[in-house]
């Protein structure tokens, strides 16, 4: 007689603990791990000898015994029983019971309702994606005593696309700007971006919303500040106060993006309350975790982790989208999220795995060097090193930078916590020898762009962007000073629109001196207005 494993014992076990439990109870062998989809980034050859790691842990973690169970991080002391009536209840009904915000009913709401109603396929994809994360988010919202409407906010922010990026560089399911993410302890480095992390970004978003509500004392104003910025909302309130006008959400002067923001959330709320009214349907969502948090004790390749879980690489990354590189560093990412049914596969297959877990490691560059030299030292092809570390052409890697390189077979230590948390990549233009270039400066015409100037002078667009401290897609303002370094004889720059300015202003001036290109920009300045921009990554694949 087959003995069933109680589901109350599975939640958040260490991999070996869960594997031993499964092995002891099962009467048949577990299904074989599915083959993961090939990773987009190059895989090093097994024979490659990597450069020594300058920062690493020294002790191999001791596996936890099967009797030790980890508590649910959402409900400490409680275990999940999938056979209980609560677990089989409808999560949508639970969410409806927690709705608290006063309703809006205006033309903006009608507009949003009409938009969603006209796109039933989009709503189905959006709500199906959201169903993976709703239980966790609603648990967090309820634990903080917040309105359940906040659990619906990712529908508005990103349509629950965990890797969504807006035109203003807001990232993740909750659309955090880089600076705001750092304010709420969301790590952003070469190895990971916690703005995409499901657990971390949810915690940070609710912390931020809670702070905004404390400041404004009104959830609609808090939501407006989440979208527009608390400083802008404070100024709009102060303006109305000076004019003797009301200071509620509907009375403030704000950009259309923010004016439409809360009505979109209201429209989603109305759909959840009564989908039939809009000829829409919601996927069934059970009242229990869709995913489990499984402890990671050693560095492991992303592709291997997906394979051991029996998931495609794409599906694995939907639950763990914060990884910037093809390896998970245990010192910085102590857990991975896996669908409930795949957690057992992962633990069982991990306990049986006999080969290396990680084929990548981190190397701190001892001196400023070219990518070709770094590739020679680490046994990589230069193209592969550039690709995995995202190094553009004509750039040097500065001393102290961290590169991802192949992990030699004899390397047993994992990357240290300090390096995993602080790793950065600093680049400098690869300047030619003194006297090899001439400096050319001229005034931009109406149609001058970085790409156009680069083509005119037969140099890389990345170089023009670096020399002029702009982004590679920049269009120069008419009359703006442009600098180019060229190996050619003095050149007279041709204006893009000769009639728009005197010929004298179109002439380039040159000085025969060594090129001193500007230092690379670390972050491009976000464009697109005061809001966080439109989501660029498709929210409806």
UniProtKB/TrEMBL annotation:
Matching CDD domains: LysM, MltD-like
Leader sequence segment: 1-35
Region Disordered, annotated ranges: 31-52, 499-541
Residue ranges occupied by any LysM domain in the UniProt entry: 440-484
Family designation: Belongs to the transglycosylase Slt family.
Official protein name in the record: Transglycosylase SLT domain-containing protein
Keyword Plastid appears in the UniProt entry: no
Listed InterPro entries: LysM, LysM_dom_sf, Lysozyme-like_dom_sf, Transglycosylase_SLT_dom_1
Annotated Low complexity bias: 499-526
Matches recorded under Pfam families: LysM, SLT
Keyword Protein transport in record: no
Keyword terms: Signal
């Amino acid at each position: 007689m087959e003995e069933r494993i109680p589901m109350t014992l599975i939640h958040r076990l260490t991999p070996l603990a869960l594997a031993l439990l499964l092995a002891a109870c099962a009467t048949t062998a577990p299904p074989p791990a599915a083959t993961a989809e090939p990773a987009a980034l190059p895989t090093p050859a097994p024979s490659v000898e990597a450069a020594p790691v300058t920062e690493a842990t020294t002790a191999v973690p001791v596996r936890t015994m099967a009797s030790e169970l980890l508590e649910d991080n959402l409900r400490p002391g409680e275990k999940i029983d999938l056979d209980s009536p609560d677990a089989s209840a409808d999560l949508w009904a639970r969410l409806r019971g927690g709705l608290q915000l006063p309703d809006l009913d205006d033309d903006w709401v009608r507009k949003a309702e009409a938009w969603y109603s006209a796109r039933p396929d989009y709503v189905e994809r959006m709500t199906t994606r959201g169903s993976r994360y709703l239980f966790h988010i609603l648990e967090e919202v309820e634990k903080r005593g917040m309105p359940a409407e906040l659990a619906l906010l990712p529908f508005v922010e990103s349509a629950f696309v965990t890797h969504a990026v807006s035109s203003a560089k807001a990232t993740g399911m909750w659309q955090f700007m880089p600076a705001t993410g750092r304010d709420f302890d969301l790590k952003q480095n070469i190895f990971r971006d916690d703005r995409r992390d499901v657990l971390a970004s949810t915690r940070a978003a609710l912390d931020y919303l809670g702070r905004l509500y404390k400041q404004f004392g009104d959830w609609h104003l808090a939501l407006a500040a989440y979208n527009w910025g608390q400083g802008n909302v404070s100024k709009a309130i102060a303006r109305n106060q000076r004019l003797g006008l009301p200071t509620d959400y509907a009375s403030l002067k704000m950009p259309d993006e923010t004016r439409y923001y809360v009505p979109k959330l209201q429209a989603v709320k109305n759909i959840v309350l009564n989908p039939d009214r809009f000829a829409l349907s919601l996927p069934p969502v059970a009242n229990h975790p869709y995913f489990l948090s499984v402890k990671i004790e050693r560095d492991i390749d992303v592709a291997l982790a997906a394979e051991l879980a029996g998931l495609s690489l794409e599906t694995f990354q939907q639950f763990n989208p914060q990884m910037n590189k093809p390896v998970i560093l245990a010192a910085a990412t102590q857990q991975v999220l896996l669908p409930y049914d795949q957690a057992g596969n992962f633990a069982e297959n991990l306990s049986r795995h006999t080969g290396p877990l990680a084929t990548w490691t981190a190397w701190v560059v001892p001196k400023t060097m070219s990518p070709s030299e770094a590739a020679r030292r680490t046994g990589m092809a230069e193209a592969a090193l550039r690709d995995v570390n995202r190094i553009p052409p004509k750039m040097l890697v500065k001393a102290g930078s961290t590169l991802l390189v192949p992990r030699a077979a004899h390397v047993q230590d994992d990357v240290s916590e300090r390096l995993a948390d602080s790793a950065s990549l600093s680049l400098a233009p690869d300047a030619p020898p003194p006297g090899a270039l001439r400096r050319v400066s001229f005034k931009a015409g109406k149609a001058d762009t970085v790409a156009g100037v680069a083509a005119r002078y037969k140099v890389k667009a990345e170089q023009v962007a670096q020399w002029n401290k702009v982004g590679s897609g920049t269009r120069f303002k008419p009359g703006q000073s442009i600098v180019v370094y060229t190996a050619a004889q003095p050149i007279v720059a041709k204006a893009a629109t000769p009639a728009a300015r005197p010929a004298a202003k179109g002439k380039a001036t040159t000085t025969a001196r060594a090129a001193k290109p500007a230092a690379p920009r670390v972050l491009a300045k976000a464009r697109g207005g005061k809001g966080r921009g439109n989501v660029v990554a498709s929210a409806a694949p």
